[in-house]
Design brief:
Elements (H helix, E strand, L loop, with lengths): L1 E3 L6 H14 L4 E5 L13 H7 L10 E3 L2 H4 L6 H6 L1
Parallel strand pairs: 1-2, 2-3
Amino acid sequence: MFGGTFDPPHNGHVTLLENAVRAVKPDKVLVIPTGVPPHKNGGNTPAAVRLEMCRCFMSVFSKVQLDETEIHRAGKSYTVDTLLD
């Protein structure tokens, strides 16, 4: 699981994902844009646009899957709720 607001995804995110994939060698990576983060005010970029921008991670690892769970959840997004889904 690789989550964040990704508003926008940037080189730091890409580098972090590259290093994690190299170290862990996962079967797949779920990229999960946060819907409403509990720790900061929401950004101006709509969730659907942030989700589209996350496609950039597919160039890092071919087995990236975008997960829309949090952007469709009402209220604030907590990782524990996503893990329970």
